[in-house]
Amino acid sequence: MQIGELAKRSGLSAHTIRYYERIGLLPYADRDAGGRRDYDEAILVWIAFLDRLKTTGMPIREMLQYAKLRAAGDHTGPARRRILEAHRDRVRAHVRDLQASLLVLDTKIDTYVEAEKRTHSHDDTEHSFDGQQTRARPTRP
């Protein structure tokens, strides 16, 4: 497939694909008779994996290290596994941090909700000057 089709199917721009090729994140594409890049379908799986690494925060330098090992062959499997294990540990720690932050946000939001309920509850009752309730308004949903 040509670069435009790969861009459409992968979600990457043609510029990004050429950049990834230049820095070694993607292997250089074969060329057709006209000199245009000709990619194999299998590249889509690799690009999807790179996207997962990027989404989980792996720095490009580590992605490049992994790609270099991958290109070197199956004997680099243990080294690639170690890279992924270390990254997984960082991702898990980040998820824990995000969960703790989410709990703080939820607690803060609940505080505001409770304050609003108290305000609405107080507003639903009208008082005379002597503090006696004169008329209760219907509660708001």
For this entry, give a set of tags.
141 residues, two-stranded antiparallel sheet
Describe the fold and architecture.
The relative contact order is 0.07. Helix 4 (60-72) packs antiparallel against helix 5 (77-123). This protein has helices at 3-10, 14-23, 43-55, 60-72, 77-123, and strands spanning 30-31, 37-38, 125-127, 133-136. The protein starts with a helix and ends in a 5-residue tail after the last strand. It contains 5 helices and 4 strands; from the N terminus they run H-H-E-E-H-H-H-E-E. The mean pLDDT is 89. By secondary structure, it is mainly alpha-helical.
Summarize the structure.
The protein has 141 residues and is mainly alpha-helical. 65% of the residues lie in helices and 8% in strands.
Task: Set down the secondary structure blueprint.
Layout: H1 3-10, H2 14-23, E1 30-31, E2 37-38, H3 43-55, H4 60-72, H5 77-123, E3 125-127, E4 133-136
Antiparallel strand pairs: 1-2, 3-4
Helix pairs in contact: 4-5
Biggest sheet architecture: 2 strands, antiparallel
Class based on secondary structure composition and strand pairing: mainly alpha
Q: Mean pLDDT score, rounded? A: 89
Give the spatial strand order of the biggest sheet: 1-2
